[in-house]
Amino acid sequence: MDFKRKDLLGIEDLSKEELLYILDTTKSFREVLERPIKKVPTLRGRTVVNLFFEPSTRTRMSFELAEKRLNADVLNFSVSNSSVSKGETLLDTVKNILAMKVDCFVVRHSVPGTPHFLARSLPVSIINAGDGAHEHPTQALLDIYTMREKKGDVGNLKVTIIGDITHSRVARSNIWGLSKLKAEVRVCGPPTLIPPEIDRMRVKVYYSIEEAIEGVDIIMMLRIQKERQERGFLPSLSEYIELFSLTEERLKLAKEDVLVMHPGPVNRGIEMPARIADGKRSVILDQVTNGVAVRMAILYLLLSKKSEG
């Protein structure tokens, strides 16, 4: 198929065919990362701006490395050193950067919908690197790619996502993607951290981790944002650990070949102990490696035709 989109804004509006096409394209770039020379000239002459209004380590570095692997020119935008701190609007800032003849913006922002607003306002490609608690499409793509790489057909999998579902853009994007591929998706967490009516997203809701992970193929733990405790979402951190931490005993309830995932950063001793995070069932570092390949694939699909033109 021909990928005709200008932007990647979310998983919700992708078709199953588009989703699979991105995953298939990722495989080619995953192979590039195993070569002695890990660069291809695909985007030579293109310029990509990483526009991050929130702190990020893995996502920002992964995008930057993906851009450089494709031979694109890269600009990293720092909010603290920009005119935004002087009162300039977001749109004015971006239009001024656009006037320098750039080709793509990778955008992370705390306000949901910001990448969508920029996509409507600008003629160049926009990639959503996380917008508030809405979506994080490239994270979901690298998660699903990792599942597919390790387990084959995603449609045969049972996947449990555990933690702060309400505030997690990672959970939302994964639910959309996994549902499109016909996987069985379960969510689990304290009632205060499960969105009302989430069952409309075709997921099964559990409030017991033991029930949620029984017989599953994939367990995805989400980071507990400690600030939620101060806002009354959790009675106490110790109670959360007692009820929802992934222990070795609980891990035995899943399938024998279960894989443990986490979008990072991991709060060791809260979501899971170090021996599980670093254990044989963990594919957390595989997710990080695959993140570079996924982002290379997205940049290629959105920008390569422009490069050829």
Descriptive report:
This protein has twelve helices and nine strands. Helix content is 40%, strand content 15%. It has helices at 16-32, 58-69, 90-98, 114-121, 137-151, 169-180, 209-213, 227-230, 237-244, 248-251, 274-277, 284-308, and strands at 47-52, 73-78, 104-109, 125-131, 158-162, 184-188, 204-206, 218-221, 259-261. The radius of gyration is 19 Å and the shape is globular. Helix 4 links the parallel strand 3 and strand 4 (125-131). The longest helix has 25 residues, at 284-308. It folds into two domains: 16-135 and 289-303, 3-Layer(aba) Sandwich (Rossmann fold), CATH 3.40.50.1370; 137-283, 3-Layer(aba) Sandwich (Rossmann fold), CATH 3.40.50. The chain has 309 residues and is α/β, with parallel strands linked by helices. Helix 1 packs across helix 12. A five-stranded parallel sheet has the order 7-6-5-8-9. A four-stranded parallel sheet has the order 2-1-3-4, with helices on both faces.
Write out key terms for the chains shown:
single chain; 309 residues; alpha/beta; Rossmann fold; 2 domains; five-stranded parallel beta sheet; four-stranded parallel beta sheet; 40% helix; globular
